[in-house]
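for the writeup, i need someone to sanity check this before i put it in the appendix. the sequnce is what the collaborator sent (i think, or maybe the updated version? ugh). structure was predicted straight from it, no edits. if anything looks off just tell me and ill rerun, i have time this weekend
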Amino acid sequence: MKLVYSDQYDLNLGNHVFPSVKYRLTKEKLLREGAAKAEDFVEPGPASDADVALVHHREYIRKLKTGTLSYLEILRLEIPYSPELIHAVWLCAEGSTLAGRLALEDGAAVNIGGGFHHAFPDHGEGFCVIHDIAIAIRSLQKAKVIETAMTVDCDVHHGNGTAAIFGADPAVYTFSIHQENNYPYPKPPSNLDVNLA
């Protein structure tokens, strides 16, 4: 199975609550324990702005790329803004698209980065700048290699961005299992929500 990864996923955020080092540590553990070999890893390039625009508003993309987000927009991200952050999330978005393509060819593939389920078309929040999974789905649909998709979200937090992006789209089924009394508030409905105490 192919594993999509870039060293640039790790932003070295120090003591920030979002541990981007987890991506590198995951790769190292897989190699150390023999669960993967070096040749199993594939490095993505950055997503194209055109692919990102399949999900996100062009004005939001422009602000991200030019560093012109407002103070409140940056606060909402809850992660320090930098050009390196933008490059990393564009890599993660292409990584998810590449993992989708590889899974279609080989039966399974994983992007070690990504999973940014709190990003909305016009803003990011909760450490999620752009929605890599939605970008991957829309990119694969545009390429006509898939028609339908299902997202299975097992994070402790509800995938509010995912539910908002795909809520009116019958071609994408959204499933979220999450802690009920936790961020985000409100929680837009997924096709199936399992709320745990």
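The two ends are 35 Å apart (CA to CA). The first helix runs from residue 21 to 32.
thx in advance!!
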